[in-house]
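Hello again, I could really use a second opinion on something today. For a while now I've been wondering how a particular protein folds. Please have a think about how the structure follows from the sequence. Here's the protein in full, and shout if anything looks odd to you:

***
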Amino acid sequence: MQRANDGHAKNSRAAAPAAKDYDDDDDEEDEEHTETFCGSCGGLYNANEFWIGCDICERWFHGKCVRITPAKAEHIKHYKCPDCSSKKMRQ
């Protein structure tokens, strides 16, 4: 579930707001994200916010909801969301 240059750009499944070039591809990208919700707060995708995707469950999260900044995300090779992290601890 890797997405590039679309606000969900992957650098360790991390996303920083991407600059928008308004061409034909943007219409497809906008449609792709209309159903993306934060796995933590349930908020709808907004290209102006930082998002990070879990490499285990493939859900997406606002960085602020999981306390990950864009700078911190650059150093994460594989992001594991709080739910997936706690599942491993329970086993």
Remarks:
- Residues 1-12, 16-24 have pLDDT under 50 and may be disordered.
- Helices lie at 24-33, 70-73, 82-90.
- The domain at 14-90 is CATH 3.30.40.10 (Herpes Virus-1).
- The chain is about 25% helix and 10% strand.
